[in-house]
Write a structure and sequence with these properties.
HTH_TetR (chains A, B), HTH-type_TetR-like_transc_reg (chains A, B), Tetracycline Repressor, domain 2, 9 helices, homodimer, Homeodomain-like_sf (chains A, B), mainly alpha, TetR family transcriptional regulator (chains A, B)
């Protein structure tokens, strides 16, 4: 990679990180391209060079944050030790952290905005389909689940949908005590199901 | 009730219904007080008389839509026949419809907006806590679940959190085929758990 390419890559990364941060901190309507460029410390010209529209920037940020989230989960999961039960416990904790963390919140802002913005929605749908498949595959891998057995695929899907619901329940207040109790019961169910 | 009170009540109802419709159709940022008054066919003066601020209108609408949703579920559930298994099946279907319908979408718009609007959030949190408790109680009642038995409370909560997650998964595309398959498996699990 040339020095020029490296600089470009670093600028893009700063813009994408700033987009995620601004979506988290200010919500969809507050995360304007001006605010994002300022947060990234990137000129408007450079921003427009890399991402000509707000939609282009946000879509790239959604992909970037999905990759970052998967990478974080994978790294932490690689350090896991213990038997199957302890491993399941820790994997669910890792996933629950992801679904209540800043990356989930930023993604939710984009999903909700895309619902009433046809152009954004059309571009987002294939990205989200891929992200969803990758998240499912990662969860199967981390849990060591055997999807050829009946009901296992649905159990993994239900886990991810449950975690998404718990993420939304955590938006306005800290739902940790309720979530902890609920997930303790869920882990026991899941251990029997997968 | 006097004729004047009846007219006031009807005006309020029109405004609240219009608020829910506009949140659904245009999202949070598009559902301005002007757009809502126009949709309701109510003058700006009358709107301001009943709901002096946008926050007051939206908070009243959230309560109104929660009541309407509970009422709809209750009415449909009252018509249910069949054995325990058939009843569980139909109750989950009713709840899944509620969590993928326009009232859920309107509420989600408000939750997400409230996350980055401290004033709205502070007013919304106690309302949502009450709505959440009532939804839980209604679900327990409709399922005929006995919460004194260990794990039953968590199973009912997990059902509602799962349905919330499925509601979000249905925002941008029609997720019905996947949801139907997932819920078929969930109903079997739930029947064993409650």
């Amino acid at each position: 990679m040339t020095a020029q390419q490296e600089r470009s890559r670093a600028t893009q990364r700063r813009l994408l990180e700033a987009t995620v941060e601004c979506l988290h901190d200010f919500g969809w309507s507050g995360a304007t391209t001006t605010v994002i460029a300022e947060r990234a410390g990137v000129s408007r010209g450079a921003q427009l060079h890399h991402y000509p529209t707000r939609a282009a920037l946000v879509l790239a940020a959604v992909q970037h944050l999905a990759e970052r989230r998967a990478e974080e989960i994978r790294t932490e999961a690689a350090a896991l030790t213990g038997d199957r039960e302890q491993r399941l416990d820790r994997v669910i904790e890792l996933l629950a952290s992801a679904f209540t963390g800043p990356l989930f919140v930023a993604a939710l802002e984009v999903w909700v905005a895309a619902r009433t913005d046809a152009e954004l929605r059309d571009a987002l749908v294939p990205i989200e389909a891929r992200v969803g498949r990758e998240m499912h595959r990662l969860t199967v891998e981390l849990l060591g689940a055997d999807e050829s057995r009946p009901g296992v695929r649905e159990a993994v899907q239900a886990t991810l949908d449950l975690l998404r619901g718990l993420g939304v329940a955590n938006l306005l207040t800290d739902d940790t005590p309720r979530r902890t109790q609920l997930l303790a019961a869920w882990k026991q169910q899941l251990a029997k199901m997968i």
